[in-house]
Specification:
With 438 residues, the chain is α+β, with helices and mostly antiparallel strands. Helix content is 26%, strand content 24%. The longest helix has 24 residues, at 321-344. The N and C termini lie far apart (84 Å).
Amino acid sequence: MPKVVLHGVRSNEPMLLAVQKGNAARSAFLNYSHSGRCDVGGRRFFSVTCSLFGRGPPSRKEKKTLDIPGLERVTYADRMHFVPGLAKPIFPEWQRDWHDPHHYRGPNNEEMKLHKENPCYVFNQRTKILEGVRQALWLTKSKLIQGLPEHILSLADDPANQIEDQDERVQQAIRHSRFWDTTALRPKRDRFCPVLLRDLLHLCGTLQVKHTSLSKRILAENYRVAALWNRESDVFQVRGLNGMLLNSMTSLPAVAQSGEVLATENHTLETFYPISPTIDLQCTYVYDQKNDTGFRDGYPYPHTHTLFFTETEDSAAKFKPEQLRAKMIMFAFGNALARAKALHGEHPQVLEHPVVVQSIATDGRLFQFIVLQLNTTDLGPDTGVKNLVWMDQDQLLYDYAKCRPLIKKKIVTVPAGLSGYQPETFKKFLALHLHGAV
């Protein structure tokens, strides 16, 4: 192999030689560009050679036009072609006499009908708030209680409410979503998550023979909710698409009784100063002050029962567990507030009949459970009655679902198939589904 001397260094390795050449050329280029003779800032060069040795086009400098009062600029507008020494004419903007959707320019925010002087902070389906659950509790004026209510969990412990061969059928549903629904060795979450959720709902629906009120429910997708409220001096709104919704003909009963609700007046909301509670929320001056459940009047299933969220592979829509739980609280609160204002009006008040909404989220393996009880629509001050949130987080349905075994150092660490099934997680899923029907 021929030996090459570069900057007084002898190298026998071709790869090392290439690295040294690249470093030397890069340093030479930086020195050249920093000397002021080359301006390539803000430009992308897709070739390595060009990025090291190329010279970009010169940047355009806009010429300032001076308007002197009393003097008229002599331009070449009448001649209709460029004339050296004459100024460039400035023509008025051409207005079309017809509507062209391809060249439409929207009005400024100040000219829109829905423009307001005070901003609104919007929480939508892609919002990832920094403080997670703590921030969601402050925005919704809620008190957090760890764990689900005992009387709800007891519904699934009753043998009369359980499914025949329950554990075996749940495992079959998991195998169907992970192995049998697709031929891929590692199916994506946006493929097996909805399949698993629908299979579990189908299993819970088999109890309609015992509890006929389960048939008075319906699933809805791609609906839009809008709920607006004032918190201290700011305006907040939850709006947009959110998961899959299970609606019911009858509302859920109150989880906490009046004594426990009145005791929340002594609860102090946790703050996260110096971080602003509006962080990561969309600030807009153009918004509609409305509360909408997403369904028309007279809809036979007007009451929200459970919200379901599934995780996808989209990196922009992928949430951390803490942010996902905050999203569940915010959209459960939005659905409850929109329903409460539709029933009791816009005036802030403590509700005689609280509105209860449940929420379940899963990534196909890990489950999050939330129950929210809306006790008041007077959300402005920190004092008074608070709303209640019960949360049970990070519940594994199973440990692994492998098409091929995981082998390390000739030892099978994870066998092929389904392993580590947790029956308690499905019992919580079943209990929330039976809530309001038993």
